[in-house]
Design a protein that fits this description.
The protein is mostly helical. The protein folds into 3 domains: 10-195, Up-down Bundle (Growth Hormone, Chain: A), CATH 1.20.1250.20; 198-244; 248-460, MFS general substrate transporter like domains (Growth Hormone, Chain: A, Up-down Bundle), CATH 1.20.1250. 79% of the residues lie in helices and 0% in strands. It contains 17 helices and no strands. The longest helix has 34 residues, at 8-41.
């Protein structure tokens, strides 16, 4: 009989890791709900998107840096660094008296969150026997489920009844407990053999810096300075992105690269719009923060339902229907985004249209997200599943950073040119719809050239 991950010799490590992941998940998901209140108090509405872009870009650097450090010195030091960065960033954000200081805190949080994700997954592969590894990974994934369902509504309630600042620090006292439980187990793990692997940190730094410069250029004046900054950002970011991704990703080459692009566009369409939905509900429809949180939580519930349906259908057809389900999920997501955009921006429509629309969008990504993940990994060359998984995560992170940064710049420009908030937010949701349409187009190229999709799926 397979030993449990909570058997005495694994219990402290398992509980500590799951506690760490859960705290970061609750805080990360809750902060998005209260961000409109934060931006209003700190006068940050014109740079709203940076609250998400700073987190995402820093997480790219954190994940790569932590992975290299864990390979070189073992996971204990990287874990401590991740927890310390996330904790300090949360405290800085909670105590911020200006939007700039809030963004600095968000960047530190992102650095820690990105590092923690890599360290916990790498540690699990070394700490548990192969028969238990999959179970621990499933538990780490499930540690995000309850926060996704409860976190937004809970954070909104906290912000309405007290202050948004508590959302950043309320669960931090659990992290020292998690460290005390986790650290002894991590210190017993043997360092991996020193392999001649390429150093990815310079590329990650260039990607984050270039993307950040590109997004910052959108807020600059005059036009010549904007053009120079945009060009410099692209020169830094594009070669780094190309180096970190499988060949053919930028051109959405048929097969695996196209699948990676679909995953990125799918995440951008839903999660990018999700970042702006609380702002739209509170600014345009007069929702309280807690009411907006309930809408986000409802979509998380429908995401879980969609994932359950996809898994159920996978068992029935052995995965043969994944390509169709991916496209169906994208269509449902697109319809949900359109309904949500209309419901929040057109006063004559009942707000129920937006609420139902976003739940429909959640159902769509719940069906499509696991479908494309399974399709891409089924096409990964043997032994390269890890690097392909990293590419999936990277394109999501960078894509959401670019979308939220550009969307925030659009809102800022709208306020600066006297647009009403509804026009600017409608354009943001239109961008999400365009991403979903792009996913549908790239999804047509997902089948590999050399091998039928059904045959590959029968192998997995």
């Amino acid at each position: 009989m397979t030993e449990s991950v909570f058997a005495p010799r694994f219990r402290a490590l398992s509980v500590g890791v799951l506690m760490s992941v859960t705290v970061v998940a609750f805080q990360s998901l809750g902060v998005g709900t209260v961000m409109p209140a934060v931006a209003r108090e700190l006068d940050g509405l014109e740079r709203y998107g940076w609250a998400f872009s700073a987190f995402m870009l820093a997480s790219v650097v954190g994940s790569v840096a932590a992975g290299q450090d864990a390979d070189r010195a073992g996971p204990a030091r990287a874990y401590i660094g991740a927890i310390a960065s996330f904790t300090v960033g949360s405290i800085v954000a909670a105590s911020a008296g200006s939007w700039s200081l809030l963004l600095a805190g968000r960047a530190l949080e992102g650095l820690g969150a990105g590092a923690l994700g890599v360290v916990t997954y790498a540690s699990a592969s070394r700490a548990y026997p192969p028969a238990m590894y999959g179970r621990m990974l499933a538990l780490m994934s499930s540690a995000w489920v309850l926060p996704s369902l409860v976190g937004p509504a809970f954070a909104g309630l906290v912000a309405d009844e007290t202050t948004w600042r508590w959302v950043f620090v309320l669960l931090l006292p659990f992290l020292p407990v998690a460290v005390l439980l986790t650290l002894p187990g991590l210190r017993t793990l043997a360092r991996p053999e020193r392999l001649a692997t390429p150093r990815r940190l310079p590329q990650a730094l260039a990607l984050a810096a270039g993307t950040g410069l590109f997004l910052a250029a959108l807020d600059l004046q005059p036009p010549l300075l904007v053009a120079v900054a945009l060009a410099a950002g692209l020169v830094l970011a594009l070669p780094a992105f190309r180096a970190l991704m499988p060949a053919g990703t930028l051109s959405a080459m048929r097969g695996l690269p196209s699948g990676i692009v679909v995953r990125g566009l799918l995440a951008v369409a839903f999660l990018g719009c999700d970042a702006f939905l609380p702002l739209a509900l509170t600014e345009l429809r007069g929702f309280s923060v807690s009411q907006a949180g309930l809408v986000i939580s409802a979509a998380s519930l429908s995401w879980s339902l969609g994932s359950f349906l996809q898994a159920r259908l996978d068992r029935l057809d052995g995965g043969a229907g994944r390509p169709r389900r991916l496209l169906a999920g994208l269509v449902v997501l697109l319809g949900g985004i359109i309904a949500t955009a209309l419901g929040v921006t057109i006063d004559e429509l009942p707000i129920a249209v937006a609420i139902a629309g976003w739940s429909v969008a959640g159902l769509g990504i719940g069906i499509g997200y696991p479908s494309v993940g399974a399709l891409v990994l089924s096409q990964a060359p043997g032994g390269e599943e890890g690097s392909v998984s990293a590419a999936l995560q990277l394109i999501e992170t960078v894509g959401i950073a670019v979308f939220t940064g550009a969307g925030g710049a659009l809102i800022g420009a709208g306020f600066g040119h006297g647009w009403d908030a509804g026009t600017a937010l409608a354009l943001v949701f239109a961008g999400g719809a365009v991403a979903a349409v792009g996913g549908l187009a790239a999804g047509q190229r997902l089948a590999p050239v050399s091998l039928d999709v059904g045959e590959r799926q029968r192998r997995h």
